[in-house]
Amino acid sequence: MSTESANNLKAVDTRNVPAPVEVPAPGNDVDVAAQENYFNRELSQLQFNYRVLKQALDTTHPLINRLMFCCIFSSNMDEFFEIRVAGLRQQIKYGRETLGSDGMMPEQVLGEISRVAHEYIREQYDILNNVLIPEMEKENIHFVRRREWTEAQAEWVRRYFDEEILPVVSPIGLDPSHPFPRLVNKSLNFIVELDGKDAFGRETGMAIVPAPRSLPRLVRLPDDVCNGGDNLVFLSSMIHAHADELFPGMEVKGCYQFRLTRNADLELEDDLEDLASALRGELLSRRFGDGVRLEVADNCPEELVHFLLREFGLTDRDLYQVHGPVNLTRLMAVGGLVDRQDLTYSGFSPSIPRQIRTKESMFDAIRKRPLLLLHPYENFSPVTDLLRQAAKDPQVLAIRQTLYRTGADSEIVEALMDAARRGKEVTAIIELRARFSEAENLELASRLQEAGVIVVYGVVGYKTHAKMILIVRREEGKLRRYVHLGTGNYHAGNARLYTDYSYMTCDESIGDDVNKLFQQLTGMGKALKIKKLFHSPFTLHTRLLGLVEREAELGPKGRIIFKFNALTERELIKALYRASQAGVKIDLIIRGICCLRPEVPGLSENIRVRSIIGRFLEHTRVYYFGNNGRPEVYGSSADGMERNLLSRVETAFPIEDPALIARVREDLDTYLADNCQSWVLQLDGSYIQNQPAEGEDRLASQLVLLDRLTGK
């Protein structure tokens, strides 16, 4: 890295990164497969979560949104433990340990995760208690603690407890006839110390109180019992204050909140006769998988903490004692309870390109030239408009679509059902195993089937992650295919929060390719020959490697820019290393996990890796190849991960219109010029945040795109 570039970087805490490796001297032969040239996948994911947490300290974000970043960190950590930590524990439990590319075994990784995660979570609560809450107090937003309740507030809480909480709460005393209850994954619970005997003469000494999941975890106090401002009280505070009412005649010596995180990954066999039925059964077990993490209030006595650890089969390594609520994700409710638009991001209206602004027919617009949209800056409505028009158009004969995450009540689903009711041939490929959307997708499948849509669940063993719509329309006596291909999901809500490309075309070869892909998904037979698309698990991996190798042959004239959510696939990393060794300039814009080690002399000194963290979740997947002055650009549903490239149904689609190629390159250059929302991956695995050089204007890529595409 040049001195000038280094001056643009702001140092951050790098204690929680892999130990530095011995760097080979320049000019030596460097083994692209050597373990020291790869970062650990799980620790890299933790680094991403930490970058999200750091947004809570970034005063360029509005205050309530900074609180939201703190909550998102919690949500990310929940999933990390439910899936990644649970997976490592399963490997050890069943003796299936596998060595990572970085050479770390699961037990070693779990130890390092515990060390790093404990530091991050301590810092999270420090940010909440000592930064965010005091700043919110200054804005007259108060989290009112029990010791601060006025007489009027305490009376209101008592009535709320009696009317809303007491009728639905079920305290469970622990004795031989009441064993420790089976608690739901991530539920809020209390362990209570008791003294005295109950009505039956039992002297248990201990009870568990599960907080009703139907109740809000944060409640706004009425204005008439407050002295102005927004005053919020936690459900946990109300239960603490009135725990004695749950055990009449007994003394409550202590009441302490805790939460158990369980293994939430689903394991389905490949030889299922009925995927939907099997999945319904697995969803029930998800709530009660093996424990992987215990969060406990830091004032809980040591003997009670160890009692809980024994009950859940956990050790001190899995224990997180926190100074505050055990589930900070629930603080996301603040945005809905507090009407302070001055403390949140300003609104904007996504634009609609001129190409379709004045057109009554999406089909006419797409025939004229292909359409490329970048959400959320450009509206998602043209995608739903295309389907709505197709549903009503008498010339449309058939519609086929993949659905990964969409929501059962979405406009897209309504359009598909409308088309089926109008007699069109409508087929939906629904991926039932979209993680944490399984139940919603089962409901979606039922609704579509009731409307007459043919529903297929894809291919067992290969998640259908591709984003495709195919519309067959009769025009002038011939059939023409219209296609939508995307990098994101068909979810209008996500399209307002995630950055993604939508590409619409009636290119004959692409239409034929998409038709063949749907044939493979709904029927059976050999893989069909595809002309323009790359598709996994068949051609995407090999074609991507081939294009990287082609750039390597150009040496210093080569150019590669990839934008991924994650890069972990070993063969792709090795190909990028070889291209760097050949002199190819490579920029990787990777939001989250990156196992590639950049800037190693003799190996990756021509590779730069940056992560963009901001208001929107960066989700676009783009592959750019310089191709000796004839650039090739592909949008894709696939990240640079083993699962995407080798064991899922994915697509990468060419963007061939010269104006659209130039537009994508301009977008990528905007990300590469970012000097304040970008974090640069260092040789030792740490990330350093870019800062403007002295006299240089701030350039936040998302704000630039927002201004460029919406005028705001």
TrEMBL record:
Residue ranges of domain Polyphosphate kinase middle in the record: 153-333
**Which Gene Ontology MF annotations are present?**
polyphosphate kinase activity
Could you tell me the gene encoding this protein? ppk1
Q: Where does Mg(2+) bind?
A: 405, 435
State the superkingdom.
Answer: Bacteria
The catalysed reaction is: [phosphate](n) + ATP = [phosphate](n+1) + ADP
**Post-translational modification remark:** An intermediate of this reaction is the autophosphorylated ppk in which a phosphate is covalently linked to a histidine residue through a N-P bond.
* The species this protein was found in: Marinobacter iranensis
What name has this protein been given in UniProt?
Answer: Polyphosphate kinase
> Where does the record place the Polyphosphate kinase N-terminal domain?
38-144
Checking InterPro entries in the record gives: PP_kinase, PP_kinase_C_1, PP_kinase_middle, PP_kinase_middle_dom_sf, PPK_C_dom2, PPK_N_dom, PPK_N_dom_sf
